[in-house]
């Protein structure tokens, strides 16, 4: 293998023989292997997938894996028919351009990108000819952190289909000694008894090798049951001393995790977002979690609650003791919250800081207590101070140095990077909470991590003449069940022993803990252990150092070095690039930059069926990797059905509005109002360019778009349970524009679970039709070639053109390819577009 994307010949002989497990698309996985070696908490993981396209035609092969947050990717390769391609780093726009150029030349191409929602998603896709064999392989490193008394090595295992050979192999080497190792049945009872585990004093081996028959969901199923996280949990032995010093190859790692200590008292303020976007499941789950959390407070703790929307309210003006009566009153207060209004994060945090400072000034706080603020929010600020950097500055300037701020971001509308910066700058941590039925358990699990402070003001000291380049060695708090890790370089050639002194404040006294370790104490064990990583101390020191630099210079360091490339966010990685693969919403017909698209993309975006301007529909066909476009020339005031699924009880309709006047003898039309009807839930949602109205039986509430977002990213996501999701975007124009008006766009992810009877202008394409495009030829205009498209028994003449995606480039947009069907989609859309006219915003189609 060579650098800079060049290649060398190799072979893929293993598993080439024998019957392959093929899907309906003639794609099969020869083998799917995950090998992971953990040396003293440092995990080196390799994921390898060997795939073959047995079809006679070209199609896409996909490698889609989840990488743990904070992992460092240090190698990614693709072997195509014996030729190995190495990944290279490019700036995102340059990567997309290189990918598109390679695909346009008919070359096999792939691009690696992170998902817009899941920043840990790593995906490579190649369009390859029939008979092609591809081996994907990625290597990454992570430091496994101790949480709630356990180290958990989590391996997302989602091969997507049956694999002829599937293997997970995990080896653990812990010089401290293993207290226990177990493999919870996280993949389900289907795989009970398949995993093997062997454990020694200091090392363990875990193996998971299900046969093809064991992988099947049922004996006759062609789908795989392997879909989830494979988890290995363990803890190490600890002696009653000042942590564990491990020294090897010129570096030291100091692990510190005492347990047998009394908890420190807490002074805790819960700051809870109760704006309109928290309405429904998010608020219900938050209330459930808070009732449990309040019940877990200790008698020595002081607490209060602040809830905020566009206003900020205190449950109590001061901190109060966690007595049974106060906790019961707090639960009743939480239970009575009704979400509505905007989001004033700045004032809410400043109010919390003020309450803590006043309590300290009045002498209410135990000198050995730990003060913290826990912020729970699901959105960006929309009221009060809106500039995120100003909010950060205000908090930093006002918060006392002994107060920690923890942030919980619910869902994906929240600016999680902002919450993470806010927490890291103020001695805390952040966590994203998915806004679903698991919200409550996730919140409680996060609280449990910070609910038991055992030490404060923890300092690690080493002889200056013996060590250098020591990572962070001062910590505000240590919480029970976690672990503090310090690393550095040690002059092992001139020193025989390394001494450390730890000072800290405990519940009843100050602590001074000393330890002394031989610099060659691990040499014999590690040099004889064939699976141990000989550079684990160096790599772990580098990992801690880089994370420390990122925390200190958040947003200033370019994260583009593959060798130490953090997964959030991943750079685009072109490996060498076919038209159509880059189509992604929101795409719009050629128009003025006065309509900036409201959803910027980080790298290429997943194509979704959607409509936008004039009503302009773009349907992405996954099987053929083509985009089909058509316009609907309806009249203002008419209502068109987009989704009609009586079996699922879901209807989505859009009402047409017109421009202010005709231009070039044509009146442009748009969607100005969209109605969602979830019949089985009794819920109606009406979204216009001015308001968002929720109707649940006799209950109705309205939100202004101003309260949803005052930024350019005007969007609202509607999620029904976990099965349905719709994204609506508001396109604003200059109010005094002589022609254009505000309008709406809607985007539907392909994961929506509609029934087989779904129909409508968009719904009819949820079960993807067979489409064949051929005989590409010059059109009436040289820049717009024509082709013949066969679909639904029709032969249509379609025109090649370019649409614009304004997410990446707000001013000029990014051009993407599309085949245009004329005459309001005639031949591509079932029947005539007038067949889709309905009387009301919540109507279902009649006899689709």
UniProtKB/TrEMBL annotation:
The keyword ATP-binding does not apply. InterPro entries: ITI_HC_C, ITIH, VIT, VWF_A, vWFA_dom_sf. SMART domains: VIT (SM00609), VWA (SM00327). Residues 267-450 form the VWFA domain. The keyword Kinase does not apply. Its main location: secreted. One of its GO terms (molecular function) is serine-type endopeptidase inhibitor activity. Keywords: Glycoprotein, Protease inhibitor, Secreted, Serine protease inhibitor, Signal. One of its GO terms (cellular component) is extracellular region. Belongs to the ITIH family. This is Inter-alpha-trypsin inhibitor heavy chain 2. It comes from Pelusios castaneus (West African mud turtle). The lineage of its organism: Eukaryota, Metazoa, Chordata, Craniata, Vertebrata.
């Amino acid at each position: 293998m060579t650098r800079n994307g060049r290649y060398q010949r190799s072979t893929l002989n293993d598993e080439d023989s024998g019957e392959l497990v093929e899907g309906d698309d003639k794609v099969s996985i020869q083998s799917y292997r995950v090998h992971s070696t953990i040396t003293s908490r440092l995990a080196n993981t390799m994921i390898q997938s060997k795939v073959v396209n047995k079809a006679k035609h070209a199609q896409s092969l996909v490698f889609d894996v989840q990488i743990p947050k904070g992992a460092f990717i240090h190698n990614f390769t693709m072997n195509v028919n014996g030729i190995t391609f190495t990944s290279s780093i490019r700036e995102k726009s340059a990567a997309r351009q290189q990918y598109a150029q390679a695909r346009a030349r008919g070359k096999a191409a792939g691009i690696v990108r992170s998902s817009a929602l899941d920043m840990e998603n790593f995906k490579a896709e190649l369009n390859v000819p029939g008979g092609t064999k591809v081996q994907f392989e990625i290597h990454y490193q992570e430091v496994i952190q101790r949480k709630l008394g356990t180290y958990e090595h989590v391996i997302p295992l989602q091969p997507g289909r049956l694999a002829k050979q599937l293997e997970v192999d995990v080896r653990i080497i812990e010089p401290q000694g293993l207290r226990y190792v177990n493999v919870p049945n996280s993949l389900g009872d289907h795989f009970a008894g398949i995993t093997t585990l062997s454990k020694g004093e200091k090392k363990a081996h875990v193996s998971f090798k299900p046969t093809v028959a064991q992988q099947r969901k049922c004996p006759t199923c062609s789908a795989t049951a392997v879909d989830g996280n494979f988890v290995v949990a363990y803890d190490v032995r600890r002696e009653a001393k000042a942590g564990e010093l491990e020294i090897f190859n010129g570096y030291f790692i100091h692990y510190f995790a005492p347990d047998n200590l009394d908890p420190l008292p807490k002074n805790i303020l819960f700051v809870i977002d109760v704006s309109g976007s928290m309405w429904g499941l998010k608020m219900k789950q938050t209330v459930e979690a808070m009732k449990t959390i309040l019940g877990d407070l200790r008698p020595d703790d002081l607490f209060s609650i602040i809830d905020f929307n566009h206003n900020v309210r205190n449950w109590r003006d001061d901190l109060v003791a966690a007595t049974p009566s106060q906790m019961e009153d707090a639960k009743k207060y939480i239970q009575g919250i009704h979400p509505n209004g905007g989001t004033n994060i700045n004032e809410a945090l400043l109010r919390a800081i003020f309450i803590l400072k006043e309590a300290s000034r009045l002498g209410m706080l135990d000198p050995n207590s730990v003060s913290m603020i826990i912020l729970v929010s699901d959105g960006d600020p929309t009221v009060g101070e809106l500039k995120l950097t100003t909010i950060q500055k205000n908090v930093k300037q006002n918060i006392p140095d002994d107060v920690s701020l923890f942030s919980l971001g619910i869902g994906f509308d929240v600016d999680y990077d902002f919450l993470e910066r806010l927490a890291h700058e103020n001695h805390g941590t952040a966590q994203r909470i998915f806004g679903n039925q698991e919200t409550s358990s996730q919140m409680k699990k996060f609280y449990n991590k910070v609910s038991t402070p055992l030490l404060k003001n923890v300092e690690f000291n080493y002889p200056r003449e013996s060590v250098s380049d020591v990572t962070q060695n001062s910590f505000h708090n240590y919480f029970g069940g976690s672990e503090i890790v310090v690393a550095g370089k040690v002059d092992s050639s001139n020193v025989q022993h390394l001494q450390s002194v730890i000072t800290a404040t405990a519940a009843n006294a100050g602590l001074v803990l000393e330890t002394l370790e031989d610099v060659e104490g691990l040499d014999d064990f590690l040099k004889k252990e064939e699976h141990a990583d000989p550079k684990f101390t160096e790599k772990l020191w580098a990992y801690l150092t880089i994370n420390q630099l990122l925390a200190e210079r958040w947003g200033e360091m370019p994260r583009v070095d593959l060798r130490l490339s953090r997964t959030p966010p991943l750079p685009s990685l072109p490996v060498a690039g076919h038209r159509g693969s880059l189509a992604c919403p929101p795409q719009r017909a050629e128009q003025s930059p006065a309509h900036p698209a409201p959803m910027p993309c980080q790298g290429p975006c997943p194509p979704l069926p959607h409509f936008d301007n004039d009503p302009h529909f773009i349907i992405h066909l996954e099987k053929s990797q083509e985009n089909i476009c058509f316009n609907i020339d309806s009249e203002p005031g008419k209502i068109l059905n987009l989704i009609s699924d009586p079996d699922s009880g879901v209807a989505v309709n859009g009402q047409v509005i017109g421009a202010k006047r005709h231009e070039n003898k044509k009146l442009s039309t748009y969607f100005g109002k969209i109605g969602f009807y979830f019949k089985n839930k009794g819920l109606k949602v009406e979204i216009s360019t001015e308001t968002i109205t929720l109707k649940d039986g006799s209950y109705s509430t309205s939100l202004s778009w101003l309260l949803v977002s005052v930024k350019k990213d005007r969007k609202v996501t509607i999620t029904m349970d976990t099965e349905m999701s719709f994204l609506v975007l508001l396109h604003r124009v200059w109010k005094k524009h002589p022609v254009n008006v505000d309008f709406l766009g809607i985007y539907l992810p392909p994961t929506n679970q509609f029934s087989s009877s779904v129909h409508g202008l968009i719904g009819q394409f949820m079960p993807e039709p067979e489409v064949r495009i051929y005989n590409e030829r010059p059109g009436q205009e040289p820049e717009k070639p024509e082709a013949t498209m066969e679909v639904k028994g029709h032969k249509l003449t379609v025109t090649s053109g370019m649409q614009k995606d304004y997410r990446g480039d707000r001013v000029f947009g990014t051009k993407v390819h599309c085949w245009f069907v004329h005459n309001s989609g005639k031949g591509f859309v079932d029947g005539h577009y007038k067949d889709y006219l309905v009387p009301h915003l919540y109507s279902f189609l009649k006899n689709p």
